[in-house]
Amino acid sequence: MRQSFFYGTVILIMAGAITKILGFANRIVLSRMIGAEGMGLYQMVVPMLYFMITFTTFGLPVAIAKQVAESEAANDRHSSRRYLILALLTTVALSLGVSLLLYSTADLFLGFMFADVRAHIVFLTGLPVVTIASVSSVLRGYFQGKQNMVPTASSQLLEQVIRLLFVVLVTASFLHNGVEYAAAAAVASIIVGEVAGFLYMIWLTGRSGLKTTEKLAQLPVYTTFKQNREYFKQLLRVSFPVTLSRMVGSIGYVLEPVLVPFALVMSGLTTGEATKLYGQFAGMAVPLLLFPTFLTYSLAVSLIPAVAEAAAQKNAPLVHRRIYQAMRITLVIGAPCTVFLYVFAEPLSQLLYGNPEVGLLLKELAPFSVFLFFQGPLAAALQGLDYAKVVFRNTLIGTVVKTVTMVVLISQPMFGIHGAVISLNLGITLTTMLHFASLVRGIGFTVEVADFIKIGAIMIAVGYASSYLANHWFVDLSIGHMLLVSSAIGFLMYVLLLVSTKVLGKQDVKRIPWIGEQLSIFFPRR
């Protein structure tokens, strides 16, 4: 079922919100069960697993979404199926090969990668997720290219529900064996969730009338590459620079659990203290920062095929309109998230983790989260326009600057773990600004500055009001009630200011699926 860009985006945003809430509930439960040290072990391994998934998918989910969107625009369903089959064959071969190689060389590889030897068993437990998640990603890319976002949304919801149920049951069972076994059980819950999502995607693929096994049978092994060389080249033209870009970002992500603890030890801390501080930063503060990025993911997923289709039709005004739509949605929803993360950083961390020290780190990260929200949609727009190489270049620059700065600052006792915060903020801001500059230079993209100025002023007003309410009116309430009441009043104030300044109008609300027509009567025209 094909959906409009806005409709598909809203579906993904709503599903993404629920998925993030479930995923964060998972992390809260986990952090309380295994503590900061266990979260440090968990966070050392998970980035490596996701890095391997990034490598073995080889950028094919993005490539297939773009190529299928262009094929569907030309009403060429044969090419759509052919792209899917080639992508699946490539992904299965890569993921199985990499998994077997890592397993057979585990002793040498793991000893080099992890400062804490307890992380070894955690990593080996999670290794099977690489193949499962890689194939699921390709199937999702196929449906996204057909501009049907329901399979992506529903499979992610299923994964998180299964994962949350499993982590509670299994982690507690292994906790008495040691924190490393409890962390390994938590990683195993990722596998179970991915299996559920994978089986669901297979069922949807069969129900859509695409019998993949039958199509594969029509491609003799000894002639497959020759017959499909041009299709494969088209996929590689997009997937290769996307892979390089993601691998650069992932390498930076993977290097963090290696470099940060070592740098902290160099600054004079013990290994246990370094692992604990890294757990607070990467396992607690950063996930809170990333929580609202379901918006970024949703927009990026919808934007790639939407922009690719408009570009294939040579419709430049539609390309600009869709990118600007994504920017406005990002700003309108991301702005209050930035404000609330900053204003309520410490009470939120106390409520969720029982650890106010995490709140200090989050407060330093929060003001730069607005750049993080824009980064995904800007990169997606560039990829949809065949500027994937530009995304790679920008990501490489941002990652190198972040990583070098991180090593230099963290190893200095005066900065410590706060050096990681400064470096992450610098990397996020630099990469986002480079993406925007590339889009301006590439297609002459512009934004309505007035909308951005209005929302900036609204952010300041809502932030001040929310802080005043929390510290004066509702200071005697419990933390949970104070957060609920203050944020609810702040959000209501935010919406009213959006409407009164005509940032949000009737035509915007009408596009919301299911309830837009009914709600729009309460909003003025822009």
Describe the structure.
This protein has 526 residues and is an all-alpha fold. The chain folds into two domains: 5-447, no CATH class; 448-526, no CATH class. Helix content is 84%, strand content 0%. The protein has 23 helices and no strands. It has helices at 5-57, 60-73, 77-104, 106-113, 119-126, 129-145, 150-174, 179-207, 212-217, 221-227, 229-266, 271-290, 294-312, 316-343, 345-353, 356-365, 369-384, 388-410, 418-443, 449-473, 479-500, 506-510, 516-520. The radius of gyration is 23 Å and the shape is globular. The two termini are 31 Å apart. Residues 212-217 and 219-223 have low confidence and may be disordered.
How many DSSP-defined strands? 0
Helicity level, as a percent range? over 70%
Domain tally: 2
How many helices? The count is: 23
Strand content: under 5%
Q: What does the overall shape look like?
A: globular
For the largest beta-sheet, the strand count, sense and barrel status come to: none
Oligomerization state of this entry?
single chain
| Helix/strand class | mainly alpha
Distance between the termini: 31 Å
The arrangement of helices and strands along the chain is: HHHHHHHHHHHHHHHHHHHHHHH
Low-confidence stretches: 212-217, 219-223
Q: What average pLDDT do the residues reach? A: 78
Whole-angstrom Rg: 23 Å
Summarize the structure.
This protein has 526 residues and is mostly helical.
